[in-house]
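check this:
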Amino acid sequence: WTQGYICGFLTREEVDTVLKGQAVGTFLIRFSDRMPKFAVSYQASDSYGQNRVKHYLLKSDDTHGAKKTLPDFLNGYR
């Protein structure tokens, strides 16, 4: 949780630029540019060993429905 970044309004393209070259697991939280929700964008390794940025749109069940805080939700993932 302490190694991520909380950003405001960034597009997916801007996020790709920010996270490019960062270590796997580096993430940022941003406002989605498509929906009124938060998105978690993170550096991941695919099945071929290539690093790439992935984007996850938070659902209400991830935190509110599960009665978890955002840090608790994120700590559940490697």
